[in-house]
Amino acid sequence: MALRNSSGKDKESGSKGSVAAVRSKKGGGLSARKFWEGFKSIAGTIAIFLILRTFFIEAYRIPSGSMIPALLIGDWLFVNKLRYGPHIPFSSINLPGYAEPQRGEVVVFESPPQYDQPDDLTPTLVKRLVGMPGDTIYMRDAVLYVDGIAQQIGYTSPEQFKGDPTEVSALFEWQHKFEVVKTRFGEPPKQPMHDHWGPLVIPKEFFFMMGDNRYDSKDGRYWGLVPRKNVRGRPMFVYYSFVPSSASDRPISFVSDIRWGRLGHWIK
């Protein structure tokens, strides 16, 4: 009897333990499966975001006034990276795009090395493309000429600050390498100045970029020509814009001083 009873208890106890073990394993499997499904969902979302950001569209913020009035400080814009061919990060590879940069377009690109600012040697910039490969460009009395034809200053604003047209800088010295002499465009000055330089011939696979706000733009006049491989995209439109706190009399201006009229503004 004692043996039977003992045997019966052991059987019952063993049976319950087996069921508990099975349930425990099943519950752990469900938890692991839920975790894995959640992980895959998050990883997939991140992968899609990175693919879109790398190959299609990326958001940028405008921190300076070099492109006023086309772009204002405090503008946030989407950039089409597919148009000129997306760049594969951490490599020197550019994939083919469906269009080539054209004169007059606003372009996002990686700057040539700016050795005067070693803390940010090759920043990502946005400027207007004014010189194409093969162009002869120069400035006389603040007027830009391309192949001898004066370019309309239709991008700049009459309210913009006017600086010193005779400014000289050691950063202008790079121009001597690309200057041409004895042409119908006149001789290059011995010392290039802010509004008086060239003629320069743009070599193949390079562009010349300038800011619309000519007297508040550190552009191609200072750091040189932009290689085609450095081009990153074409700005499309402003998706958000606010008056920066330094120019606004309202608190938390990014919420209280929104430029509603610029939302959806297409960039030309």
Q: Level of helix content?
A: 10-25%
Count every beta strand, where a strand is a DSSP E run of 2 or more residues: 11
**Shape, per Cα inertia axes:** globular
Global Rg: 30 Å
User: CATH homologous superfamily of the largest domain, by name?
Assistant: Umud Fragment, subunit A
Reading off the top of the CATH hierarchy, the class of the largest domain is best stated as Mainly Beta
* Number of contiguous helices: 3
Number of domains: 2
Spans with pLDDT under 50 lasting ≥5 residues? 1-14
Mean pLDDT: 86
What fraction of residues sit in β-strands? 15-25%
Series of H and E elements: HEEEEEEEEEHEEH
Q: What do you see in this structure?
A:
With 268 residues, this protein is of the alpha+beta class. The chain has helices at 2-55, 220-223, 253-256, and strands spanning 57-61, 75-80, 106-110, 124-131, 136-140, 143-146, 149-150, 197-201, 206-210, 226-227, 231-241. Helices cover 23% and strands 22% of the residues. The strands form 2 sheets. Strands 1-2-11-3-4-9-10 form a 7-stranded antiparallel sheet. Residues 1-14 have low confidence and may be disordered.
Set out the fold topology.
Elements: H1 2-55, E1 57-61, E2 75-80, E3 106-110, E4 124-131, E5 136-140, E6 143-146, E7 149-150, E8 197-201, E9 206-210, H2 220-223, E10 226-227, E11 231-241, H3 253-256
